[in-house]
Design goal:
- The complex is a heterodimer.
- Chain A is mostly helical.
- Chain A is 59% helix and 0% strand.
- Chain A starts with 10 loop residues before the first helix and ends with a helix.
- In chain B, the strands form two sheets. Chain B has a six-stranded mixed β-sheet with strand order 7-8-9-4-10-11, sandwiched between helices.
- The longest helix of chain B has 14 residues.
- In chain B, helix 4 crosses helix 5, helix 4 runs parallel beside helix 7 and helix 7 packs parallel to helix 8.
- The N and C termini of chain B lie far apart (43 Å).
- Chain B is built from eleven helices and eleven strands.
- In chain B, 37% of the residues lie in helices and 25% in strands.
- Chain B is α/β, with parallel strands linked by helices.
- The chains are: A mainly alpha, B alpha/beta.
Chain lengths: 355, 268
């Protein structure tokens, strides 16, 4: 009997199921990747558009100030706070009552949903100083500086803790304490970051009576420690036991073989874990809201409220001023690129290690 | 101490039985390894020869659940004395493993110097001298003297194994243990290692575990033969020492008939 003729009766069905399953996995994989590509693509598109020459070298500027250019158009509002507040006329300076012919003074702002959309005829002609005419101003320098400061100090706190904990888990693994530590570590890595922020708020911000960069660093460090710990543990476990035995046979104590032989062998992997922890920390928003608060000025002082890119996005993306929206998109762009670079760096390191 | 170096060092094993948890690896073993001689340990897989070797410098106990009964004496001093740190024992009784260990993150030079630094040697001139002496003693100097800065993993397998031997002898142990040092090497590299061992015989007490009977015949002065027995209801395998004689006798006129059966390939 020929090979073809000896095929089992259910052969066609089996072949069909096989093809179907393969197709399904490909479709599912594609669907999983699409949102990622959309997010990155849209952020790069919107954020890239708001990159102005001074974007990386200037800090936040209020919308109407136009990068130092004085607006003379009277229909353009001066920023709130630039004028003394008058309780009888709370919207003074916002420009609403000065918009010609609206008949809707003190109630709507041009460009919002309640803007007489139901009656196009009643819609006011947008003045020259329309909010949408205000272009992107200022930059994200203060956000970049704040994010780097807070995240790097968080790393400096988290690396010693995570590294030593990872060494403990990997080199003294048959130990009931290690089992407990490993479990706690897994729980902590799954903890909602807002909870960590609340704890930092209660333990640091409340007693010191001020939001501060340090409080943010502590909160981020708590989130980074489990990542670094488990990465260190996994990388150390990959070092063959023969390496440890070689050191041991020289009469080396465990701590010596760990620090002079085992850790250097696994160093690239550990650095990768640290980079991933950095990327995670840099993108956290919730714990920073409760700890560093955010700021509109450039600051290197970790004892006071400080800016951060995620907070800028959070704060300005809902702003009525398009210029602030642009700032938020720009911050999103910078943050995305930063996290992408760190991830790619980590990948490249891993690739080098496995080669 | 000086006289000790001169006359060599004796390792005496008394009623030694290694365990992994509850499982006993061998029956109690008593044997003496003579100074400035090479003793080979041969036997079928699972007979516990490697485990016994690892008991001699307390490497066995590094495995979780592993323990030992009986004693091992180095020049009369019990290495299993509870007041004695295992790391001190291992400095006196060096070991080379089946897989060559070249530290990937370190240069050839550092692969040797690492053990010297561990023992507190800091002076650069002395480090240089000791590294060179060990590399010469392990017949590697001429091949690596121009590339001491390259990583240890740049060497071939045979060279890496000689590097491992150089690292072990750099810290000047009394005894050198080798656990199947040639099983990962080709015949030419193996021949070089064997030649090296014969050179080192005058200075160390050497114990080598090998699954290669020809190697035992070529390099050793005396040979210890192990076998496996299956006993009890569970047929649990357990190793036992059946003969320790001069190598020539083991291969020509063994005392135990089972030795002859093993060597001729009828058992094991």
């Amino acid at each position: 009997m020929s090979i073809r003729a000896s095929a089992p009766r259910n052969y066609a069905w089996r072949r069909f199921v096989g093809r179907l399953m393969q197709t399904l996995t490909i479709v599912a994989t594609t669907l999983a990747i699409v949102p990622l590509l959309l997010i990155i693509g849209y952020v790069l598109y919107r954020g890239g558009a708001s990159l102005t020459p001074g974007f990386f070298t200037t800090d936040y500027l209020p919308p109407a100030l136009g990068g130092g250019i004085e607006f003379t158009d009277p229909t353009v509002p001066a920023p709130i706070g630039e004028q003394p507040f008058n309780p009888d006329d709370p919207f003074a300076g916002v420009g609403i009552d000065s918009l010609p012919g609206t008949g809707l003074e003190n109630e709507t702002i041009p460009g919002t949903a309640a803007d007489g959309a139901s009656d196009p005829a009643a819609q006011p002609r947008p003045p020259e100083g329309d909010l949408t005419q205000i272009t992107a101003q200022g930059g994200v320098r203060h956000g970049i500086v704040g994010t780097l400061l807070v995240t790097i100090f968080a790393l400096l706190l988290a690396i010693p803790l995570g590294l030593l904990a990872g060494i403990f888990l990997a080199e003294y693994r048959d130990n009931s304490v290690a089992t407990v530590v490993r479990f706690c570590c897994d729980v902590l890595s799954g903890a909602p970051s807002i909870i960590v922020g609340v704890v930092a708020f209660v333990l640091i911000v409340a007693p010191t009576q001020t939001y501060s960069g340090w409080a943010g660093s502590v909160a981020l460090a708590v989130l980074m420690v489990p990542t670094i710990t488990r990465a260190t543990e996994e990388m150390l476990k990959l070092v063959p036991d023969s390496t440890r035995e070689g050191a041991m046979a020289l009469g080396a104590p465990t701590w010596w073989s760990t620090f002079t032989v085992v850790v250097p062998t696994a160093l690239v992997g550990i650095v990768t874990g640290v980079l991933l922890a950095f990327a995670r920390g840099a993108g956290e928003t919730a714990p920073l809201l409760l700890t560093i608060q955010g700021s509109n000025k450039l600051s290197f002082d970790m004892n006071e409220p400080i800016a951060a890119l995620p907070l800028m996005i959070y704060k300005y993306i809902e702003s009525p001023f398009p210029s602030e929206n642009d700032l938020a998109w720009g911050a999103a762009f910078v943050l995305t690129v930063l996290v992408l670079i760190v991830n790619i760096l980590a990948r490249a390191l891993t690739r080098r290690r496995t080669r | 101490m000086m006289t000790g170096t001169h006359t060599g060092h004796t390792v005496t094993v008394r009623e030694l039985a290694p365990f992994y948890g509850k499982r006993q690896v061998t029956r109690p073993i008593s044997v003496e390894f003579a100074p400035r001689r090479i003793t080979a340990m041969i036997g079928p897989s699972g007979c516990g020869k490697s485990t016994v070797l690892r008991c001699l410098n307390r490497m066995h106990e590094s495995i979780p659940g592993a323990r030992v009964s009986g004693s091992v004496l180095l020049d009369g001093e019990n290495v299993y004395d509870s007041r004695l740190d295992a790391t001190l024992v291992r400095r006196k009784i060096g070991m080379v493993f089946q897989q060559p260990i070249a530290l990937r993150t370190r240069s050839i030079y550092e692969n040797i110097a690492v053990g010297l630094r561990l023992n507190g040697l800091r002076a650069q001139a002395e480090l240089d001298a000791r590294v060179e002496a060990s590399l010469r003693a392990s017949a590697l100097w001429d091949e690596v003297k121009d590339k001491l800065g390259q990583p240890g993993t740049a060497l071939s397998g045979g060279q890496q194994q000689r590097l491992s031997i150089a690292r072990a002898i750099a810290v000047e142990p009394d005894v050198l243990l080798l656990d199947e040092p040639c099983s990962a090497l080709d015949p030419i590299a193996t021949a070089k290692i064997e030649e090296l061992l014969l050179d080192l015989r005058d200075r160390y007490t050497i114990v080598i575990v090998t699954h290669n009977m020809q190697q035992a015949a070529r390099v050793s002065d005396s040979t210890v033969v192990f076998l496996v027995e299956r006993t009890g209801d569970t047929q649990q395998p357990i190793g036992l020492l059946i003969e320790h004689s001069p190598t020539r006798e083991v291969f020509t006129s063994p005392k135990d008939p089972r030795t002859e059966e093993y060597i001729s390939g009828r058992i094991g």
